[in-house]
């Protein structure tokens, strides 16, 4: 990871993207913490409902509560990262994530589980905000899109591996050990960050935690039409993706009779489509503008979604075609999502932490409201 206050041109020139620096690998793993907490326990929904004596909808509520906490916490990590630097808020967040994971593993009621998931989300949000702020400390526009695409490749392996691993842990030891595993992962990331991460926030860019300053900076971003277009484009696409994530265990396992192991394979196929499309998008940045790629992704997303809706209404959507529609939707997400996370206005450059706070809040706030039945 680059030394503190190192100029962009000296710290990480564009050619760094031809290889994978260690600091970027750590940032990708930190960003993957959120998907791990979301995807790993999906195959265990039915087992959790039976063990706790609750409905399947109550288990889905634990996912919605996690998304709620994730969206809310990101608003706080942005200002904290701009005041105290990138490292301290990250370490505190990882400690909260570990505590929340332990609470989930020991929960005996749905209320305890929901509260522990919210705590887990408040900690995991640090991994969503801080790595993107670190990237924006060093890059603008096109290079930031490339770096985010590489991060998506790293974190994108999580939705493929997490359900597979979660299904195996479920079969061998039970659903509570899934959260014990999350605890161990959080501990390893905490240790790696404490020992290897260096501060990237320039002291000249430190912003005091004054309510007037925070409100003014957020107001500038919220009134910046271009930023809001990118944020909302990512938010509504992510809402569809997380509606699929929340509802897919009930549809595939309970209604279509797919085994937890089979469900994890289907889930991995969709995640692989997202990863592959993200890497294709990154390579196409050499010949196309980010706006052009985002427009293509939005168009394909609309076509796939409308086609799937019409086939469903006509009763002409067998499982293989349902999977094909989902693969197309997820590929569109992967193709366009890195372009939605571009830097805001140039004058907001020193407030990278606050910029990624609302940037991450919009998608997760919409996701939490779009779960099936809620």
Helix and strand layout, with pairings?
Layout: H1 8-11, H2 22-31, H3 33-39, H4 45-52, H5 56-84, H6 87-106, H7 110-136, H8 141-172, H9 176-196, H10 211-222, H11 225-255, H12 260-284, H13 290-313, H14 319-340, H15 352-368
Helix pairs in contact: 2-7, 2-8, 2-9, 3-8, 4-5, 5-6, 5-7, 5-15, 6-7, 6-9, 7-15, 8-12, 11-14, 11-15, 12-14, 13-14
Plain-language structure description:
The protein has 374 residues and is mainly α. α7 (110-136) runs antiparallel to α15. It is globular, with a radius of gyration of 20 Å. It has helices at 8-11, 22-31, 33-39, 45-52, 56-84, 87-106, 110-136, 141-172, 176-196, 211-222, 225-255, 260-284, 290-313, 319-340, 352-368. Mean pLDDT is 81; it is low at 1-17, 346-350 and 357-370. The protein has one domain (8-368): Up-down Bundle (Growth Hormone, Chain: A). It starts with 7 loop residues before the first helix and ends in a 6-residue tail after the last helix.
Low-confidence stretches: 1-17, 346-350, 357-370
**Mind telling me which CATH architecture this is?**
Up-down Bundle
The SSE string, one letter per element, is HHHHHHHHHHHHHHH
CATH topology: Growth Hormone, Chain: A
Radius of gyration: 20 Å
- Determine and state the CATH class: Mainly Alpha
Helix content: over 70%
Structural class: mainly alpha
Number-wise, the strands total: 0
Quick check: average pLDDT? 81
Shape, per Cα inertia axes: globular
Taken together, the total number of domains comes to 1
**SS element count, helices:** 15
Summarize the structure.
Helices cover 77% and strands 0% of the residues.
């Amino acid at each position: 990871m680059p030394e503190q206050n190192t100029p962009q041109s000296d710290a990480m020139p564009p050619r760094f993207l031809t290889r994978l620096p260690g600091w970027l690998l750590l940032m990708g793993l930190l960003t993957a913490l959120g998907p791990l907490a979301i995807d790993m326990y999906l195959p265990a929904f039915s087992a959790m409902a039976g063990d706790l004596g609750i409905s399947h909808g109550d288990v889905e509520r634990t996912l919605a509560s996690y998304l709620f906490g994730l969206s809310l916490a990101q608003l706080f990590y942005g200002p904290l990262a701009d005041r105290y630097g990138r490292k301290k808020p990250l370490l505190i967040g990882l400690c909260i994530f570990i505590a929340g994971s332990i609470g989930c593993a020991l929960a005996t009621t749905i209320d305890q589980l929901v509260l522990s998931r919210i705590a887990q989300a408040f900690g995991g949000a640090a991994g969503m905000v801080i790595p993107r702020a670190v990237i924006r400390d060093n890059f603008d526009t096109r290079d930031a899109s490339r770096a985010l695409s590489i991060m998506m490749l790293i974190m994108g392996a999580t939705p493929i591996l997490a359900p597979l691993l979660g299904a195996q842990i479920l079969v061998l030891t039970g659903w509570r050990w899934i959260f014990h595993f999350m605890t161990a992962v959080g501990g390893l990331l905490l240790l790696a960050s404490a020992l290897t991460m260096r501060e990237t926030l320039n002291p000249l860019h430190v912003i005091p935690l004054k309510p007037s300053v925070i409100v003014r900076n957020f107001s500038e971003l919220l009134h910046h039409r271009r930023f809001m277009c990118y944020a909302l484009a990512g938010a509504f696409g992510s809402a569809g993706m997380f509606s699929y994530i929340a509802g897919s265990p009930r549809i595939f396992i309970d209604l279509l009779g797919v085994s937890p192991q089979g469900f994890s394979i289907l889930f991995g196929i969709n995640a692989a489509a997202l990863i592959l499309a993200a890497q294709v998008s990154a390579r196409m940045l050499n010949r196309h503008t980010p706006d052009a790629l985002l427009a293509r992704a939005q168009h394909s997303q609309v076509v796939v979604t409308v086609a799937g809706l019409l086939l469903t209404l006509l009763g002409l959507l067998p499982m293989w075609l349902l999977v094909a529609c989902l693969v197309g939707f997820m590929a569109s997400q992967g193709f366009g999502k890195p372009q939605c996370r571009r830097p805001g206005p140039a004058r907001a450059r020193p407030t990278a932490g606050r910029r990624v706070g609302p940037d991450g809040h919009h998608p997760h706030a919409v996701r939490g409201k779009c779960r099936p039945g809620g």
